[in-house]
Amino acid sequence: MTEAREPARLKGTTHVRHAPGTPCWVSLMVHDMDATQEFYRALFGWRFRPGPQHLGPYVRAVLDDYQVAGIGQLPPDRHLPIAWTPYLGSDAVDVTAEAIQSCGGTVGVGPLDANDAGRLAIACDPVGAVFGIWQAAAHLGTGLSGVPGTPVWYELLTYDTASVAKFYRTVFGYAEEPVVSADFDYITLHIEGRPVAGIHGVGHDLPRDQGPHWMTYFEVADVDASAERVTELGGHTVHPPCNTALGRMVTVADPENAVFSVVSRFD
Fold first, then answer.
1. CA 20 to 30 Å from 25, out of 40, 46, 75, 191?
2. pLDDT for the residue 132
3. Helical residues (DSSP H) of the chain, grouped into ranges
4. Which of 176, 178, 195, 210 is nearest to 85 (CA)?
5. What is the pLDDT at residue 5?
6. Does the domain at residues 4-144 carry the CATH identifier 3.40.50.970?
7. Which fold has domain 148-265?
């Protein structure tokens, strides 16, 4: 079970370790690191510290001395989609990478060491959604949750849950809890009895320019104010604010068009 304790200064939860299969880190690779840091500093109050430079310049976002996310620099000649990528925990990245390939997925980067921080790989599932795998060493992953500016939920948006649920269940050992509905295709993924992520089958509503992809939700105090702030900082709203089972949320994009959601959870 994920060990946790209450932090000394913030009313959130700090994480000592993340159970295998749990989303344990989220990272963004961009072209303009300085501008991206300024955007998220202004939006979430993040500060930044240097991280491992194994794939180029990289920083870790920090809230009250707890690491919550990473931002890295893309090589100038790499014109890849800019996207927040969640990392799923593993006790043995090499074994997980083999399982991904044997279950119809693809490993595009690694496995490789991130200095003394840990070992990682970047993969995609059988229908093309990209995610990372993280085997912790010195860097345990996201250290804080439950306060504004921290990741609060991860959701795979795909064509339908049936096409990928078996893949994630086999590779990461998730227990599944489907939503029983004729018009809502959704499965909640559980690790050690705790919900950690979701799979949402959206069919033809999937954006053509994105395809299947993982969405990261960050907690904020005021969704509507955050959406306005995103626009002021050079981003834009992708889907307008609405109320969901998780809370009030809005999907936005930063100035490099990395899409993410912010949510204010209902009490």
1. 75
2. 97
3. 33-44, 93-102, 165-172, 223-232
4. 210
5. 31
6. no
7. 2,3-Dihydroxybiphenyl 1,2-Dioxygenase; domain 1 (3.10.180)
Residue 94 has pLDDT above 60, yes or no: yes
> Residues 239, 250: contact at Cβ < 8 Å?
yes
Spatial distance between the Cα atoms of 237 and 231, rounded to a whole number of angstroms: 7
Short-list 64, 24, 72, CA closest to 46: 64
> How many C-beta atoms surround the C-beta of residue 237 within 10 A?
14
Angle between helices 33-44 and 223-232 (to 10 degrees): 150
Outline which parts of the chain fall under CATH 3.10.180.10: 4-144, 148-265
pLDDT at residue 8 in the model = 33
What one-character DSSP code corresponds to residue 182?
S
pLDDT at 246: 80
Which tokens in the block code for residue 33?
């690191």
Cα(98)–Cα(240) distance, integer angstroms: 40
Please say if the pLDDT value at position 11 is more than 70: no
Distance CA(102)–CA(11), nearest Å, equals 42
Sign for the pseudo-dihedral over CA of 44, 202, 80, 89: positive
Split at pLDDT 50, 70, 90, the class of 7 is very low
In angstroms and rounded to an integer, the radius of gyration of the C-alpha atoms of the chain is 17
Secondary structure element (H or E) that encloses residue 176, with its range: strand 175-178
